[in-house]
Structure formats: structure tokens, C-alpha cells
Amino acid sequence: MTDTLETPGLAESSGAASCCAPKTACCSTPAPKWSWKAIPGQKYLFSTWAIVLGVPLLVLILDQPQFVSFVSFAVRAFLGTLPYIAFAVALIAWLKAAGAEAYVGKAFEGRETVAICLAALFGGLAPFCSCEVIPFIAGLLAVGAPLSAIMAFWLSSPLIDPPTLLITAGALGWPFAIGKAVFAVSLGLFGGAAVALAMRAGIFANPVRSGSVASGCGCGASPQTGRPVWMFWRESVRTAKFGAELKANAGFLIKWLALAYVLEAALVTYVPADLIASAVGGGGFGSIVISALVGMPAYLNSYVAPPLLAGLMDQGMGTGAAMAFMIAGAVSSIPAMAAVWSLVKPSVFATYLGLGFAGAVLSGVIFQLVV
User: What are the boundaries of each domain within the chain?
Assistant: First the structure.
């Protein structure tokens, strides 16, 4: 590590050398993790990219008439998320090159309750689906924001936004739309508070999965001022760090979100929305639980769900079951779960799913009783 201290342009940044130096372990780019082992000592048989490319190829071979619509859906969905990916990747790279990770994380110290409340409220206004929110979650994890606030935003953001509120009101009425908005913020607050209590008990000390976009370290703050070096381009090592982070993080997020949208296209193409919705008809507590269970892995976005559920409610589906299905489906789905799995450790992933399921069931029960 001593050779890195003599690097030109680092006269001010000796404290940053340990994490800016290309040879350090904390900044090395991890080898890609694949899904199933093949021959011992070699790469795994199927990588994420193999699945991303292989699924459309299977559609082309086995169901050629659906190929164009399948690929078009996945590409359109991915391109819609691309601006968010670009913003998140650039922000993470800038913060790490400037040495602002710990600095930004400290801004939340002593303000966790306020951060949870703001995250839940902002999540209710942010127009992100369960996949589009992933780049922002990665950014928050990277700068050391408290997991409790991240969970609050993570749970509330996909549930409601102004356009979804109006669409839901038009199809299901204002009581349903307002109820969903209230449950969205409440679920964020509930999830944030639960994670905060767990963290105080020593759980989730290190929630980030090793090798994810949110792991690793950046350059340190200036040893002279103790503050981040925002104009990182004045130092060659920080500039190199920015480029390395930009490349690595872009590749990571693009890979996993591409997988998410390919899985989403498969669900939309081969699992009709009306078939999913019709499986959760009926009323009572049992139907609420079943609706939440079916809704979580299914993909039925907030624009498609309201008119379908309106028709099912006309046929006798309970309002509580409809609310539980809508919330569970918005919080998580198979595409979103694939991306979430890549960012956090299994314990955090399981907590996210558990909070989403519990919140959906409680929302359905409360709405059934009130309405």
C-alpha cells in the first residue's frame, strides 16, 4: 500500500490511498457470480446474461409469434428505467470518488425517525415501480443511509404515486384509492420502524451483499479538511476511481435489471393478468391471505390491476382481498425480487418479503373492516 501514497496528484489524499489504490482488496471488482455450477474449478453453467439472452431465444424457438412482442416489452421497460440507472450510477461513482460515503451516512445519525418518516412520505410520491426503485436503493445503500429509512422508501415507493392514485380512483373509487395511499405510507413507516428495532438489537449490522453495487469502499475524505473532495477530477487516483465505479456499477445494475425485465416479459406474456386476478376471488380472511400470497410473485402493475379488480369485485371479490392483492403485487414480484436479491443479504431479503406480505394482509383486513 505504501507505493500508492507516492502517486502523483495525491498530495492531499493520503488518507484516501487505502481505498483508492487499484491493488487494494476492498476496491477489487468481484468475479461474476453465476447460478448453477458446471465443472468444478470452472465458471458456472448459467450466468445472469445467459438467462437474459437465453429466455428470448427459447421464445423464438418455441413460440415464434410471441417473440417480437416479448422482446419489445422487455426493451421498452428497460429503456424506461435507463435514466434512473444512469443517475444512480453517476451519483454512486461521484460520492465514492469524492470520499463522501461516510460523510453522507453521518448526516442520518440521530435523525433516524425523521429519515424513516420522510422516506415513507417521499416514497408515496415517487413514481417508481418495484423494479425502477432498485437503482435508488443501491445508491442509498452505497452512501451508508440507515437500512430502516431505506426499507421505508423501498416498501412505500412502488405502491402509490399521483398517476396511480387517479387511475385507482377512476376504476375502484376514491375510498379505495385513498385507502391504498394511506396503507402505502403506513407500510413504509411500519417496515422502517421494525427494521430500526431489529438494528438496535444487533440484527442487520452489515446488510449489503458482498460484491453488489452497494458494497466496497470509495476514496477517503481529504486528510487536511476531513471533508469530501467534491472536485475529484483534480486528483488522478480519484478520477480513476470514478471511472472504475461508473463501469462496475453500470454493469451490475444493467445486468440485474435486464434479468428483471426479461422475467417480467415472460410473466406478462404467458401468465395473463385476468387469470392471476381470477385466482384470488372471494371474501373473508382466508381470501385476503391467499390474495397476498398470489399477489407477491405475480406481476400486475398498478395501471393494469384496478380495472381487473373492479370487475372481480363486481362478481363478489371482497374489498379486503382486492386491497391485499394490490399491495402485495406492487411491493414485490418475481422480477423485483431478482434485483433485490442481488443487493442485500438473505436476511434482509427475507425481511423485505415478510414485511411486504404482513403489510398486505393487515391492509386487507383493516380495509375490509372499515369499508
Answer: 66-370
